[in-house]
Amino acid sequence: MLRNLLIIVCLLSSANVFAQKKGVQINATVGVRLPKKSASNDPNHPYKAIGSSLPPLRVVTMDGKVITNKEVDYHANLVVMLFNPTCEHCQDQTDLFEKNIFLFKKSKLLMIAAPTMGPYLQNFITTYHTDQYPGTIIVGLDSNSTIDKTFRYESLPQINIYDANRKLIKVFSGNRPIDSLKRYIQ
Known about the structure:
By secondary structure, this protein is of the alpha+beta class. The chain is 27% helix and 23% strand. It has five helices and nine strands; from the N terminus they run αβββββαβαβαββα. A hairpin with a 4-residue loop joins strand 1 and strand 2 (32-35). 23% of the residues are buried.
């Protein structure tokens, strides 16, 4: 019995040392790997906490149009989806938004991908018909580190909801059913 307990303690200690070298903490009570807190995933970091302002935007669309905070300044909620055009979860979420586009009477959907995703963006736009809703869906590439300022590095897609004053009111990580999002879409 004592020997088995000693083996378990040694294994947990080794796992903890290995995990710390890899930037992960082990929660001994539940045995779950949790990411280490850092500025990049801390929800209390500026722009990531509920109530934070929308950071300065500079999103470039495929046709070269630059979207800034001025272009998303209107009196309704703004749905910002941080996504990767090659991510199946992001594709599914986009398909769900497209099927429920009728809910977006005043709100807009701003979809932001990392600058390195440029080669994949046009195919994504064509496949998911986002270009058919020019007044409602804006898809572009981040050129002002908006993703770094707002993404919590939990899962894709990340959907941030900003109110009419562009204050963060809700963050969703991963796919969400439309019922969870309806109350935020105007």
